[in-house]
């Protein structure tokens, strides 16, 4: 690999190699201030030419690494940053064995963590990014890492990936924290936001989770809160976990303890102000 | 024809957690997680003593619980068939 970049995100270290300068330069800018790995990296992501001659003719980036999805589609080189981000996700999703990986966002306040999980489009990233600028510590928007031993959540504060309508959130944000605008990606227009300095500086601090939220976003929805039973929360979180099955009984025990120990609620909202108000109402009692 | 007899893995092959009236069961043999509603956990308890027919399981459960059915053995047989499909019991 001609171009290499290493970084730590929470307790996980990555090494990203690329045949092109562009994606690695974009990563260096986006992740300025992140610590470097202090030993052997947990995961390696390689961005390679799909075929060697494609490096010169109409380049397209194939994502490779320790774990590979055979049908992961190559992306045009202009989306190399996105390819690197997807590669990091993929290595985590398939290879992480130290934590129960939940496809969820998390934020922390006063040492207590809030988990936000739900389907794509539920607004996890948007809400976590917003709360992270409003007095909460941003812990992650893509994966929450549940410690199998002590049940705490570990941060994984990668750059937030904001899409389409959520891009308005970036208005007025320090341009130095923003990645390039990536248009025409498989998920539409995407732009990354580097978490604020507090989130980066405290990426090693785990927090005790106290509330699980299942947000649902819809333009016509009335703001509402519904209790979610522990059994339903368990089932939904097994679906939200990428490594529940691989962890076997350790994952079962960790998840059963997790949903048994803290309340779960579903919230409906039509805009971020409503969601913020609902979370402010629920938080003190959590 | 003799009634089918059913067997289940011993209790230490399963990890069980009660959550709000449901039983979450991790089946160590298969690595699968199951959500069980009554009387499925009670059926597995009854089979822990050894293989039994649906009527014997119904009698065993009937000693401790009231089974709301005109034909308890048939009701238990239906649940046994579901547990068999889930891979938690089998016919001997």
List keywords for this structure.
A: Phosphoenolpyruvate Carboxykinase, domain 3; 8 helices; 16 strands; B: about 90 residues; Arc Repressor Mutant, subunit A; 3-stranded antiparallel beta sheet
Per CATH, the architecture of the largest domain in chain A is Alpha-Beta Complex
The best one-word shape of chain A is globular
What is the beta-strand fraction of chain B?
25-35%
The average pLDDT value of chain B, as a whole number, equals 92
Number of helices of chain B: 3
* Largest sheet properties of chain A: 8 strands, mixed
Q: What is the general shape of chain B?
A: globular
The CATH class of chain B: Mainly Alpha
Gap from first CA to last CA of chain A: 48 Å
**Broad structural category of chain A:** alpha+beta
Low-confidence stretches of chain A: none
Share of residues in helices of chain B: 25-40%
Instruction: Supply the CATH class of the largest domain in chain A.
Output: Alpha Beta
What's the total number of strands of chain A? 16
Oligomer: heterodimer
Count the helices of chain A. How many?
8
What pattern of helices and strands is seen along the backbone of chain B?
EEEEHEHHE
The portion of residues forming beta strands of chain A comes to 25-35%
Structure description:
- The complex is a heterodimer of chains A (286) and B (92).
- With 286 residues, chain A is α+β, with helices and mostly antiparallel strands.
- Chain A has helices at 21-30, 80-95, 124-132, 197-201, 230-240, 244-247, 249-261, 272-282, and strands spanning 3-9, 12-18, 43-49, 60-65, 75-76, 99-109, 112-117, 137-140, 143-147, 153-154, 160-163, 182-185, 188-193, 208-217, 224-228, 264-269.
- Chain A is built from eight helices and 16 strands.
- In chain A, strands 6, 7, 8, 9, 10, 14, 15 and 16 form an eight-stranded mixed β-sheet that branches.
- Chain B is α+β, with helices and mostly antiparallel strands.
- Chain B has a single domain (8-91), classed as Arc Repressor Mutant, subunit A, CATH 1.10.10.
- Chain B contains three helices and six strands.
- In chain B, a hairpin with a 4-residue loop joins strand 3 (22-27) and strand 4.
């Amino acid at each position: 690999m001609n171009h290499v970049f290493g970084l730590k995100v929470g307790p996980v270290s990555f090494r990203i190699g690329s045949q092109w300068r562009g994606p690695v330069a974009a990563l260096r800018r986006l992740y300025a201030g992140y610590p470097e790995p202090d030993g052997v990296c947990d995961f390696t992501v390689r961005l390679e030419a799909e075929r060697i001659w494609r490096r010169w003719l109409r380049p397209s980036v194939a994502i490779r690494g320790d774990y590979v999805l055979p049908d992961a589609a190559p992306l045009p080189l202009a989306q190399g940053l996105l390819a690197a981000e997807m590669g990091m996700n993929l290595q985590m999703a398939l290879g992480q064995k130290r934590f129960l990986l939940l496809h969820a966002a998390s934020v922390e306040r006063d040492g207590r963590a809030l988990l936000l999980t739900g389907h794509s489009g539920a607004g996890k990233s948007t809400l976590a990014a917003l709360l992270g600028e409003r007095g909460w510590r941003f812990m992650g928007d893509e994966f929450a890492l549940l410690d199998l031993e002590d049940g705490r959540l570990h941060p994984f504060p990668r750059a937030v990936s904001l899409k389409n309508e959520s891009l308005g959130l970036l208005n007025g944000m320090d341009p130095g924290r923003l990645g390039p605008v990536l248009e025409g990606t498989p998920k539409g227009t995407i732009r990354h936001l580097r978490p604020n300095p507090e989130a980066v500086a405290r990426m090693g601090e785990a927090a005790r989770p106290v509330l699980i939220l299942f947000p649902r976003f819809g333009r016509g929805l009335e703001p509402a809160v519904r209790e979610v039973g522990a059994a339903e929360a368990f089932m939904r979180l097994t679906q939200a976990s990428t490594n529940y099955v691989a962890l076997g009984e350790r994952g079962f025990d960790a998840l059963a303890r997790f949903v048994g120990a803290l309340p779960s609620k579903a919230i409906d909202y039509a805009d971020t102000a409503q969601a913020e108000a609902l979370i402010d109402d629920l938080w003190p009692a959590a | 024809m003799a009634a089918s007899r059913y067997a289940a893995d011993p209790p230490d092959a399963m990890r069980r957690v009660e959550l709000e009236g449901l039983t979450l069961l991790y089946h160590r043999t298969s690595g699968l997680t199951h959500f069980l509603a009554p009387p499925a956990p009670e059926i597995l308890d009854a089979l822990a003593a050894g293989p039994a027919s649906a009527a014997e399981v119904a009698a065993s459960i009937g000693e401790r619980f009231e089974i709301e059915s005109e034909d308890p053995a048939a009701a238990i047989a239906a649940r046994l068939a579901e547990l068999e499909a889930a891979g938690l019991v089998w016919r001997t």
